[in-house]
Amino acid sequence: MIDWARVRELRDEIGEEEFREVVTLFLDEMETSLSRLEPDATAQRAESDLHFLKGSSLNLGFSDLASLCQRGERAAATGAPETVTPEEVRRLYSASKAEFMAQMPAQLGV
């Protein structure tokens, strides 16, 4: 669910203090973006929203969420935005966030 190698790489690149700020910013941006997802969004809007969520997820190692968003983005690009629902994305984000927060101390020694 979480690519801990990517998370460690990011933390090592930017330092522990900046990493904490990035995590806080990431969580805030994700929750804001997730709140805007709509089940009846146009294909173009869904594609754009899922593209943003995919990129953000990849940056912080939320690999399963990034994969789901990529699948939804591709489906929306072909005119089938209903393939991946906002509820699916929100559920996986919640599960990923819970795992990330629970495992971060052990994985990163923070």
Structure description:
The protein is mainly alpha-helical. The protein has a domain at 1-11 and 49-105. 79% of the residues lie in helices and 0% in strands. The longest helix is centred in the C-terminal third of the chain and has 23 residues, at 86-108. It starts with a helix and ends with a helix. Residues 8-107 form the HPt domain.
Strand count, sense and barrel status of the largest sheet are: none
Radius of gyration: 14 Å
Gross morphology:
elongated
What percent of the residues sit in helical stretches (DSSP H or I)?
Answer: over 70%
Please trace the helix and strand order, writing H or E for each element. Answer: HHHHH
SSE order and pairing:
Elements: H1 4-14, H2 16-36, H3 43-59, H4 63-77, H5 86-108
Helix pairs in contact: 1-2, 2-3, 3-4, 4-5
Write a concise synopsis of the structure shown.
The chain is about 80% helix and about 0% strand. With about 110 residues, it is an all-alpha fold.
Structural key phrases:
single chain; mainly alpha; 79% helix; elongated; HPT_dom_sf
